[in-house]
Specification:
The complex is a heterodimer of chains A (225) and B (303). With 225 residues, chain A is an all-alpha fold. Chain A has one domain: Orthogonal Bundle (MetI-like fold), CATH 1.10.3720. Chain A has 8 helices and no strands. The relative contact order of chain B is 0.14. Classes of the chains: A mainly alpha (225), B mainly alpha (303). Chain B: Residues 67-259 form the ABC transmembrane type-1 domain.
C-alpha cells in the first residue's frame, strides 16, 4: 500500500517534512526578532516610530502571503537580482527567499501578539512601580515585562501554528516542502485518499503537540487577576 | 501620553524623543531613497510600465475580472461555510457524547491542516471522480478547500458566540418550558449570530487572502493570477505587483474597518445582551484543543 513512497527520494516524504520544519523554525526565529522590534516601535513614545509600526502591520497584514512569497521570487530575485547569498544553488536561494517572505508577513502578527500582551498589564502596576521609586529599566525588567511575557505565550503559540501551516505557501515558488511533494504525488499516484491522509497526518503531528504544549504552558504561567 | 511603559514625558524626555524622531526620520528617508534608486536603476520607474494602469484596458481585461473571481470564490466559500460551521459548532456543544466528540474531531482536524493541502486534495478528487469541466474545476477546488477550513474555524466562532451569551438567556428559556432545540433556534442562535457578525466579517479577510493560493497552485484566474497575465502582456512585473497589493490592501482594509465598526456598534447598541465575539477573538480561539470538554455550555437544556 505504501510502496509508491519509495519512488520519491528527492525529496522523500520525511525529507519534505524536514524542509517544512526548517522553514518553520527559521521563519519563527526571524519573525520573533523583527516582530519584537516592530512591537517596540508600536509602543514607543516616539510618534514617528509608532506610525511606522502601525503602517507596517496594517499594510502587511492585508496583503495575501501568497502575493508576498511570489513577489520574493518574481520581483526580488528576478528583477532586483536578490540572491540571498546563494546565486548558484537554486534550492537554497528559493528556500531563503521563502523564509524572507514568511518573516516579513509573520512579524506583523508577532508584533500584534506582543503588543496585546503588553496591553494586558494594568497601568496601575507600572504606576505603583514608579511610585516606589523604580527607574525606567527597573519598571520594565522587574514589573512589566515578566507579566507581559507570560500573557504573550498563548497568542504567540497561535502565530506559530499558523506559521507552520503557512510554510506550505513556499510551494508556490518551488521550495521542495511537504505541500509541493503532495501535489506531485497526488497527481501521479492512484492512492489519492491515502496520500491526502498521510500529509494531513504529518501536519496534525507538527501542529497539535506544539499547540497543546504551549497552551498548557500559557495556562500554567498565566497571571491570575 | 501615559502608557504602562512610560510616564507623560518631561522636558528631558521630550528632547530625547525629538532626537529619536530625527534619527528615525533620517533612517526612513535613506531607506525610501535607496528603494527609489534601486527601482530607478532597474528601470522600474519608467512611465511606460505604469501607463497601462491609467487606461481602462488593463482594468477591464485583467484586473477587474480577476478581482471579480476573487470575490466570487470568497463569497461562495463564506456562504457555504457559514451554515456548515453553525451545524458543527452546535454539534460540538451537544449533550450527547457521540455527537460532540466526532464534531470536535472534525473541527480540530480541518483546522490543523493547511488550506493549500485541502485545495490540492479537492482538485485531484474532482479530476478523478467527477465530470466537472477543467474550466470550472479550479473554482470548485478553491471553494471546497476554503469551505472545509473555514467551516471549522466558523464552528468555533459560533460556539464562542453562543457561549458569550449570558446564562440567564438559557435559564429563562428553560423556565418558560422551551425544549433544547427551541432554546437553541429561537433564543440562543439569533442572538449569537448578531454577536458573531464582526468575527465573521474579519474571517472574510482571511478567505480573500487565501484565494490567492488557488491562483498560483491551481491556476484559478483570480487577481494574482490575472496579474501574471497582465505582466506578461505589458512586461511590468513590479508595477503590477504593487497595484495588485494595493487592491488587496484596500479591499481588506475596508472589510477590517467594517468589522471594527460593527463591533463598536454592537457593543453600544442597547437592544442586545451586549455579548460580542470581537475581531481579535477569532485568532484567540486556540488552534489545538481536541474537543469533548466543552459540552456543558449555554446549549445545555433541561434533563
Amino acid at each position: 500500500m505504501f510502496d509508491f513512497l519509495s519512488n520519491y527520494d528527492d525529496p522523500s516524504l520525511l525529507g519534505a517534512f524536514w524542509v517544512t520544519v526548517q522553514l518553520t523554525v527559521f521563519s519563527a526565529i526571524g519573525s520573533l526578532i523583527w516582530g519584537t522590534l516592530l512591537a517596540a516601535m508600536r509602543v514607543s513614545p516616539v510618534p514617528l516610530m509608532r506610525g511606522f509600526g502601525t503602517a507596517y502591520v496594517n499594510i502587511v497584514r492585508n496583503i495575501p502571503l501568497t502575493v508576498i512569497i511570489v513577489f520574493t521570487s518574481l520581483g526580488l530575485a528576478d528583477i532586483f537580482g536578490v540572491t540571498m547569498g546563494a546565486a548558484d544553488d537554486f534550492d537554497v536561494k528559493y528556500f531563503r527567499l521563502a523564509v524572507l517572505g514568511l518573516v516579513a508577513y509573520t512579524a506583523a502578527f508577532v508584533c500584534e501578539a506582543i503588543r496585546s500582551g503588553i496591553n494586558t498589564v494594568p497601568v496601575g502596576q507600572a504606576e505603583a512601580a514608579r511610585a516606589i521609586g523604580l527607574s525606567f529599566s527597573q519598571v520594565l525588567r522587574l514589573v512589566v515585562l515578566p507579566q507581559a511575557f507570560r500573557s504573550v505565550i498563548g497568542p504567540l503559540a497561535n502565530v506559530l501554528i499558523a506559521l507552520t501551516k503557512n510554510t506550505t505557501v513556499a510551494a508556490t515558488i518551488g521550495v521542495a516542502e511537504a505541500a509541493l511533494l503532495m501535489k506531485e504525488m497526488i497527481e501521479n499516484e492512484a492512492q489519492v485518499l491515502l496520500i491526502g491522509g498521510i500529509f494531513a497526518f504529518g501536519f496534525v503531528v507538527l501542529t497539535l503537540p506544539t499547540g497543546l504544549f504551549l497552551n498548557w504552558l500559557s495556562k500554567r504561567l498565566a497571571v491570575k487577576r | 501620553m501615559t502608557s504602562v511603559l512610560y510616564d507623560a514625558p518631561g522636558p528631558k524626555a521630550k528632547r530625547r524623543n525629538v532626537i529619536f524622531s530625527v534619527i528615525f526620520f533620517v533612517l526612513l528617508a535613506l531607506l525610501l531613497w535607496w528603494i527609489w534608486r534601486v527601482m530607478d536603476e532597474k528601470n522600474q520607474l519608467q512611465w511606460s510600465l505604469w501607463k497601462p494602469f491609467t487606461q481602462s484596458q488593463a482594468w477591464t481585461t485583467y484586473l477587474l475580472p480577476g478581482l471579480a473571481n476573487t470575490l466570487k470564490a470568497a463569497g461562495l466559500a463564506m456562504v457555504i461555510a457559514l451554515p456548515l460551521g453553525a451545524v458543527l459548532g452546535i454539534a460540538r456543544m451537544s449533550d450527547h457524547r457521540w455527537v460532540r466528540i466526532p464534531a470536535g474531531a472534525v473541527v480540530e482536524f480541518f483546522r490543523a491542516i493547511p488550506v493549500l493541502l485541502l485545495m490540492l486534495f479537492a482538485n485531484e478528487v474532482y479530476v478523478r471522480y467527477t465530470g466537472i469541466s477543467s474550466d470550472d474545476r479550479p473554482l470548485y477546488a478553491v471553494v471546497t478547500g476554503l469551505v472545509l477550513y473555514n467551516a471549522s474555524v466558523l464552528a468555533e466562532v459560533v460556539r464562542a458566540g453562543i457561549l458569550s451569551l449570558p446564562k440567564g438567556q438559557t435559564e429563562a428559556a428553560q423556565a418558560i418550558g422551551l425544549r433544547k432545540t427551541q432554546t437553541m433556534t429561537s433564543i440562543l442562535l439569533p442572538q449569537a449570530v448578531t454577536a458573531m457578525l464582526p468575527a465573521i466579517v474579519s474571517q472574510l479577510v482571511v478567505i480573500v487572502k487565501d484565494t490567492a493560493l488557488g491562483g498560483v497552485m491551481l491556476n484559478f484566474t483570480e487577481l494574482l493570477n490575472s496579474r501574471a497575465t497582465l505582466a506578461a502582456n505589458y512586461a511590468n512585473v513590479i508595477p503590477s505587483f504593487i497595484v495588485v497589493a494595493i487592491i488587496f490592501i484596500i479591499l481588506n482594509f475596508i472589510l477590517t474597518s467594517f468589522a471594527s465598526w460593527l463591533e463598536g456598534w454592537l457593543r453600544r447598541s442597547k437592544r442586545s445582551t451586549g455579548a460580542v465575539v470581537g475581531v481579535e477573538d477569532v485568532t484567540e480561539l486556540n488552534a489545538a484543543e481536541i474537543g469533548g470538554t466543552h459540552g456543558t455550555g449555554a446549549g445545555k437544556g433541561g434533563a
